[in-house]
């Protein structure tokens, strides 16, 4: 008896249509914190500093210069030089021999991370460039570092996820070294040889499906930048991810493929068959999506989403102009929950327009939300209370039947002197506010809004 297929193969082939990148869907997903960023070594460096753009090549070149050698990769360096692998670790952690500078990094990557829209970043690198960039964007001590080979950081991360309901509202900026990190004076593994890769991959394979990290990742989409597949261990790691994430094909992927390379040709076919969107140049792709996520030019779909969604009604969102990206993020979160939010992303010009439009919008809102950020904290600390958003605060508290609901983000402290003294003096209220960085921040915000609005939300 011949083999009879269970399905019509021709129908299955027809269904495997080419993946299409939807800017509108992508913007909505990013603002709702649905994406995890995966950053490969080859998009880290400014090409003016390292022609290949690959930070591994940059480090290897420095090592070859120091050792007066000509090793082609780290695997060859460790296997053939007879030197202890600490030569790599020591170089990267010696302030006299190695410094990290934002100017040396890819401007496309710096701009993308600078949007603050990608809070969870996986990196395939073991050096400190991504950590330096995270500190540049979020501030010292305001982000979490996780190392796959460091049990303490892993357990701390797991506990943080457990405190969040199913890990879905975890909002702390986080950098995850998925192949280990070259730490100073710490004997921990990081991938520079095939043997190292086997040991690290074994850790990922042994990760139980109910692990909080895997549950968190499973609920996300992936945006991979760079991450060339010329290393077998990264291919295997990607296989693990694809096995865990059923909707991986919904993610957007920017690979740097070399179509003269047979391996990359095979990868192109694999991605196409899996209906995973791909872009041949990750740096061009980064520029494109950064513009989509930040530009308010007339030809940008992101601007249309904002303008179409601007409505007066239940909630007025007040913010400092430097915090427009964060304000946009909060706006989309609230809109997704069904709340009617007035959000002005293009500041009105002229006193007449400001007085008329802003006063009218605040007057019509039932809840006034001052967005409290480090930028606001800095103004309050310096005694700068003559900003337009301070005027909005004063306008709101002068109106009757207006609920004022302060919302703290990104490290603004509701217990600091600038809040307990300066802020309360302007608002003239004992309100403390809601900290969105806390595990139940979003739920507390929703409960408060529902109470003030009496379930009066948009359907």
Walkthrough of the structure:
- Helices cover 46% and strands 9% of the residues.
- It has 459 residues and is α/β, with parallel strands linked by helices.
- The chain has 2 domains: 277 residues, no CATH class; 148 residues, 3-Layer(aba) Sandwich (Rossmann fold).
- Strands 3-4-2-1-5-6 form a 6-stranded parallel β-sheet.
- The longest helix is centred in the last third of the chain and has 14 residues.
- The radius of gyration is 25 Å and the shape is elongated.
In short:
The radius of gyration is 25 Å and the shape is elongated. It contains 20 helices and 12 strands.
Name the assembly state: single chain
Main β-sheet, spatial strand arrangement: 3-4-2-1-5-6
How is the main sheet built? 6 strands, parallel
What's the overall average pLDDT, rounded? 78
Compute the number of structural domains. Answer: 2
- Which regions are unreliable across 5 or more consecutive residues at pLDDT < 50? 1-16, 306-313, 346-352, 455-459
Q: Level of helix content?
A: 40-55%
Count of separate DSSP helical elements: 20
Label the overall shape. Answer: elongated
Distance between the termini: 58 Å
Which class best fits the helix and strand makeup? alpha/beta
What does the radius of gyration come to? 25 Å
Report the β-strand fraction as a percent range. Answer: 5-15%
Q: Total strand count, please?
A: 12
């Amino acid at each position: 008896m011949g083999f009879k297929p269970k399905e019509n193969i021709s129908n299955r082939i027809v269904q495997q249509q080419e993946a299409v990148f939807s800017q509108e869907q992508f913007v909505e997903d990013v603002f709702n914190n649905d994406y995890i960023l995966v950053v490969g070594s080859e998009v880290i460096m400014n090409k003016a500093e390292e022609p290949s753009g690959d930070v591994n090549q940059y480090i290897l070149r420095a090592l070859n210069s120091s050792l007066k050698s000509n090793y082609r990769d780290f695997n060859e360096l460790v296997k053939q030089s007879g030197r202890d692998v600490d030569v790599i670790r020591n170089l990267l952690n010696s302030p006299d021999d190695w410094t990290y500078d934002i100017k040396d990094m890819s401007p496309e990557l710096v701009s993308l991370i600078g949007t603050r829209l990608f809070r969870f970043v996986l990196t395939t690198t073991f050096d400190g460039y991504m950590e330096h960039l995270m500190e540049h964007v979020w501030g010292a001590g305001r982000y979490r570092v996780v190392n796959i080979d460091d049990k303490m950081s892993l357990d701390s991360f797991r506990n943080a996820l457990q405190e969040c309901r199913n890990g879905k509202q975890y909002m702390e900026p986080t950098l995850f070294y998925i192949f280990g990190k070259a730490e100073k004076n710490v004997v921990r593994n990081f991938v520079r040889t095939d043997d190292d890769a086997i040991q690290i991959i074994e850790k990922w394979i042994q990760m139980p499906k109910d692990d909080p990290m895997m549950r968190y990742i499973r609920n996300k989409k992936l945006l991979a930048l760079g991450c060339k597949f010329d290393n077998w261990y990264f291919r295997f790691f990607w296989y693990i991810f694809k096995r865990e994430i059923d909707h991986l094909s919904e993610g957007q992927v920017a690979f740097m493929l070399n179509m003269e390379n047979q391996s990359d040709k095979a990868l192109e076919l694999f991605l196409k068959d899996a209906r995973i969107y791909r872009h041949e140049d990750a740096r061009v792709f980064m520029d494109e999506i950064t513009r989509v996520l930040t530009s308010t030019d007339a030809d940008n779909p992101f601007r249309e989403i904002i303008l179409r969604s601007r409505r007066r009604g239940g909630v007025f969102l007040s913010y400092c102009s430097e915090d427009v990206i964060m304000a946009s993020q909060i706006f989309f979160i609230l809109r997704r929950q069904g709340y009617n939010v007035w959000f002005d992303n293009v500041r009105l010009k002229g006193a007449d327009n400001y007085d008329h439009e802003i006063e009218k919008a605040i007057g019509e809102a039932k809840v006034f939300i001052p967005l409290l950020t480090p930028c606001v904290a800095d103004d309050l600390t310096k005694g700068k209370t003559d900003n337009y958003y301070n005027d909005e605060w004063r306008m709101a508290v002068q109106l009757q039947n207006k609920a004022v609901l302060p919302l703290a983000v990104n490290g603004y402290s509701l217990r600091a002197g600038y809040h307990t003294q300066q802020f309360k003096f302007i608002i003239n209220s004992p309100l403390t506010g809601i900290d969105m960085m806390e595990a139940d921040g979003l739920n507390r915000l929703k409960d408060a809004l529902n109470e003030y609005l009496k379930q009066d939300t948009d359907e």
